Amino acid sequence: MQPFETHTGIVIPFNRSNIDTDAILPKQYLKMLEKTGYGPHLFDDERYLDPGDVDTPVADRRLNPECILNQTPYSQGSILLAQANFGCGSSREHAVWALRDFGIRALLAPSFGDIFFNNCFNNGLLPVILDQELIDELFERCGVEPGFELTVDLQNCEIQGGGSTWPFVVEEGRRQNLLQGFDEIGLTLERSDAIRHYEAGRKIQEPWLFR
Amino acid sequence: MAAQTLYDKLWSRHLVDELPDGSSLVYIDRHLLHEVTSPQAFSGLRSLGRKPWRLDANIAVPDHAVPTRNRELGVPGIADLIARKQVETLTANCHESGIELIELEDSRQGIVHVVGPEQGLTLPGMTIVCGDSHTSTHGAFATLAMGIGTSEVEHVLATQTLRTRKQKNLRVRFEGELGYGVTAKDLILALIGRIGTAGGTGYAIEYAGSAIEQLSMEGRMTICNMSIEAGARAGMVAYDEKTRAFVKGRPRAPEGAMLEQAHNYWQTLVSDADAVFDREEDFNVSELGPQVSWGTSPEMVTGIGGTVPDIDRVKDESARRNLQRACDYMGLKSGQRLEGLAIDKVFIGSCTNARIEDLREVAHLIKGHKVHSAVKQALIVPGSGLVGLQAEREGLAEVFARAGFEWRSAGCSMCLGMNDDRLSAGERCASTSNRNFEGRQGKGGRTHLMSPLMAAAAAITGELTDVRKF
Ligand code: SF4
Q: Can you cite an annotated GO cellular component (chain A) (predicted)?
């Protein structure tokens, strides 16, 4: 997994709550078999004026000028600022792959959908939970200063920008995993003996599960 | 030992290890796979030379992207070449790894969350995961069932465990008698309307109370299914005689002496009487009427006699903006009545409401009626091939066809429109599925969530209708 230490970038203000993973990456792109290639389809329904599918050449599609991802400097943005419950709905990890592919490295919101939140950590994308007041303040800053930049520092658990510094909290285990870019499967497999031991006990307790 | 909730019991029974990073290693008894969220997991395993830990815990079935017509042609009959490739990839991955696959031509094929319980692959006391958020459905059988992402699918395949964190306990009690025309779907929609789509985030929900005890297993599955729409990864119902009766005789269920042994254990799968929940929500269902969603989030829901909220009266600016956006998308006005709103399409299906009981209710209601002439399409898609066969045997399919419904083969279909069953821009749909997000059933499509009874009534009248007056 790609590690995350510190990242500086342009903030994309997406001032909506309950943004679901269907909006982040519409269903037609779930037919793809890889983990990459989703960037051009991030927020596809909003991003283009005409509908598209996996085999529609992106170059032939008309960009929606109203969509913030199509506007300078946000098309170069890498930190997404949103309202509550970002990433709710479907478990599709494709939504995270699309954000990552577009170049997003960190997400700032008051809360996140549960499965989505996990998926982010598994892909080197940092979702940061911030107080509603701070989120609102950041939206204000973005409003007065288009192209407003922030630094998200996971080493020190701080966000810096516009002369201010704000602390944030992330579970220590998740922080370490992101900083190191661990292969979690490899880590779990180091505990194979414990799993086998557990399994042997269950076979005796609930033999009907092992058939 | 301290009193435990059902969730606590399931959790501690499956706990393999506590990990240094603060998460827990939880053993997974059943892993369900489908074509959309598994290919990258199989590639991940392959690239590192890893193998599945335990083959017999896994089972795969294609459901999301499969067409609901021309199924006798099998995989070669999938017209969408990219979708076909995805189903072929699932087949190849299963063959290569040795994981059991229910193929497209098999009568047992269907939506993974309908197939699991039907085949007895879902058994009380299990931990069940699938790369799909509606895995919560299986919680109706006193299981801990959760949706996971593709990285986690790979992790479960390789290790038979999940790294996860314990949730808090939320009990939702539905007490009272359901009125005529009010179903499990109305209970869960009303709950989401009350607590919001983030209301259950961080919790495992246990549904309890006299109304839940009265419900069939099908109804309980409908409720557990939409736990994720309330923000919770898992929802569950305690084991009882109904669970026992449903499981008995299923192909993969234990039999004879082993069933008795299992039953003895399963009976413990209830919350202790003095267990303490972190939070409780209580509902009196006797007053509840049929529900219908008006907006673009399942929490934007009201009784069928209700209206779109009066947006001007909402104080919070960002809430107002959200409501206005939903109204604009749905083509509705602030304060507008929902009853009588003309619809273009009807979809009866999905893992929420496509089991035999749902189809029986629909057939009973529409018998002798015709789909309204203004309705462009009314689809009925059974949750599995076996549900479909059963409906045909019982004569339900004939009732549907005679009324002017299209009777299709099993799959997710217009619930998410990955195949060619979808809405066009601006079309308004009465749907028994679970999500009314923008574009969910097709770009620009407008979804109103409701029960099968309500969707059936809408099909006949051509508008959103109170089924109690039908
Ligand atoms: S029926 Fe709909 S919600 Fe259920 S698994 Fe299929 S796509 Fe997901």
A: 3-isopropylmalate dehydratase complex
Q: What is the average pLDDT across B276-288?
A: 96
Q: How many residues does chain B have?
A: 470
Residue B303 counted as domain residue: yes
Q: What is the pLDDT of residue B139?
A: 98
Q: Looking at the structure, tell me whether residues B435 and B389 fall in a common domain.
A: yes
CA distance B177 to B211: 6
User: How many CA atoms does the CB half-sphere of A87 hold within 13 Å?
Assistant: 31
Asked if residue B96 and residue B51 are part of one domain, the reply reads yes
User: What's residue B21's pLDDT?
Assistant: 86
Q: Among B29, B155, B435, whose Cβ lies nearest the Cβ of A188? A: B155
**Is residue B374 a part of any domain in this protein?**
yes
Q: Give the end of a domain, one of B231, B265, B287.
A: B287
Count of domains in chain B?
3
Please check whether residues B412 and B429 belong to one and the same domain: yes
The response to whether B412 counts as a known ligand-binding position is yes
Residue B1 has pLDDT above 80, yes or no: no
Calpha distance A175→A129 (Å, rounded):
13
Contact B350 CB / ligand 1 (< 6 Å) = yes
Judge whether residue A96 has pLDDT over 90: yes
Per DSSP (E only), the strands in A44-187 are: 79-82, 106-109, 126-129, 149-153, 158-161, 164-167
Look at residue B113 in the predicted model and tell me its pLDDT. Answer: 98
Q: Could you give the maximum distance between any two Cα atoms of chain A, in Å?
A: 65
Q: How confident is the model at residue B317 (pLDDT cuts 50, 70, 90)?
A: confident
Share of chain A above pLDDT 70, in %: 100
Q: Any idea what the CATH number is for the domain that residue B304 is in? A: 3.30.499.10
- B27–A27 CB contact, under 8 Å: no
A89 shares contact with chain B (CB less than 8 Å): yes
Same domain, residue pair B84 and B142: yes
Q: How far is CA B99 from CA B53, B102, B167, B210, B445, in A?
A: 11, 10, 31, 41, 37
Map residue B325 onto helix, strand or coil: helix
Q: What is the pTM of this model?
A: 0.97
Ligand 1 centre to CA of B119 (Å) is: 18
Residues A81-102, buried b or exposed e (16+ Cβ, 10 A)? Answer: bbbbbbbbbbbbbbbbbbbbbb
Question: What CATH number has the domain bearing residue B261?
Answer: 3.40.1060.10
Q: Is residue B281 included in any domain, yes or no?
A: yes
Residues B72 and B213 in one domain: no
Q: Which two tokens stand for residue B334?
A: 């602030």
Q: What is the pLDDT of residues A50-88, one digit of tens each?
A: 989 999 999 999 999 999 999 999 999 999 999 999 999
Cite the residue boundaries of each domain of chain A with CATH code 3.20.19.10.
6-180
First-to-last C-alpha distance (Å) of chain A: 35
Q: What is the pLDDT of residues B55-94, one digit of tens each?
A: 999 999 999 999 999 998 999 999 999 999 999 999 999 9
Q: State residue A62's pLDDT score.
A: 96
d(CA B43, CA B49): 10
| pLDDT score of B206 | 98
For residues B258-297, one letter each, b for 16 or more C-beta atoms within 10 angstroms of the residue's C-beta and e for the rest, the string is ebeebbeebbebbbeeebebeeebebebeebbbbbbbbbb
CB contact (8 A) between residue B147 and residue A84: no
Average pLDDT (A125-136) is: 97
Helix (H) or strand (E) holding B185: helix B184-195
| Domain containing residue B276 | 168-287
